């Protein structure tokens, strides 16, 4: 049972193009339990989940955010290679949508309440940022959280002078371990709001704090997270999020119908797929005929029957067939087959054009990016140098073995000569780098130069260390 007497949080998981699921959840919470959004102490988000979290924290329009998601999906699907096409730039589309839909004081509303999960490039550690000085800084943090390496580009964006990448790499569901955090994920698992699959497979995968059950439904959802489906399937995913959120509210007795709803009134709003009831006059009959002529049955009503009317309208417009002769011809089967056959010829030209366009857009950021690349190259070179130096021989004694022995000098040597030899041996020993700090003084039996039992014990002046290389033994 969810405890409303304590402080609670919301946490949205990263999910790629399945962020439309979060739109359905947000619309349900706004309609059925708006106090859960207004009273949440923190709203966490990673990757695509950070976009939904910023929408709720900054009080942006849910319908406009849904339009942005559909726009990104349609832009990816209109190319032969989908989101892998060189001309597809998701960060540019996301930036334009955020600049258009977020209010001017979004950073003020989000500071201290919106928590964005980021992954620092330098050490791969997770960082949660919640303070934003301007709207541009807020947008930059969201772009960093959505940047998937190679998929979105090669040079990661920066936030407050530090390079970050997708927050889902290090923590895809921030603060999910807290008891009073409502976790939201489009993958079936142990999250509070998530799909309920009928599969009896109880195997579970933990991906950076996100619970994902190993079944075919989640495999299908994972493929759609990377390669977006058609708008009709996106509408089904959005309604699934609405129903899952409604089920969570009912199971935890969180439905407060007496609270004012933030969403549109379904009884007063009209859907673009249904003609408006008119008076039975002659003019009304003509208007009804015109509406029937323009009416489009592009989306089944049962697919979006639970969604707010404004969200329905977004999906209805997305499912409409594009007008115009070019759009109709391009959708023909023969034309599409021909476009795929000509792809080896057209792809290099389109790629060159896209690269040139990105270079022109990259010019203002070249100095900062080049400094970062130079720093990365220096760090890599320094690391390789340290590894090579650490793997080199530590001293010159690796080829030969050192042995120290204590023996009496030959009887024919004079005391002065012995002192000179000991003095020279001491210098030779101090010039070498030995592996150990202490000398193991061998006994007379184990000594290389064994002494006679009749020989008197040597005095301190007669003890001399001599260094022999193994090749001289």
What labels would you give this structure?
473 residues; alpha/beta; seven-stranded mixed β-sheet; two-stranded antiparallel sheet; 16 helices; 11 strands; disordered C terminus; lipid metabolism; Acyl_Trfase/lysoPLipase
Description:
- GO terms for molecular function: triacylglycerol lipase activity.
- A motif (GXGXXG) lies at residues 14-19.
- This protein is an alpha/beta fold and 473 residues long.
- Among the domains are: 9-256 and 305-321, no CATH class; 324-376, no CATH class.
- It has 16 helices and eleven strands.
- The protein has helices at residues 20-32, 34-38, 48-57, 62-77, 90-101, 106-110, 135-146, 216-226, 231-251, 282-294, 309-319, 325-330, 333-341, 343-362, 366-391, 415-430; strands spanning 9-12, 42-46, 114-120, 126-129, 158-159, 162-166, 181-184, 204-207, 210-213, 403-406, 465-468.
- The strands form three sheets. Strands 1, 2, 3, 4, 5, 6 and 7 form a seven-stranded mixed sheet that branches. A two-stranded antiparallel sheet has the order 8-9. The protein has a two-stranded antiparallel ribbon with strand order 10-11.
- A hairpin with a 5-residue loop joins strand 3 and strand 4 (126-129).
- Helix 5 (90-101) runs antiparallel to helix 7.
- The N and C termini lie far apart (83 Å).
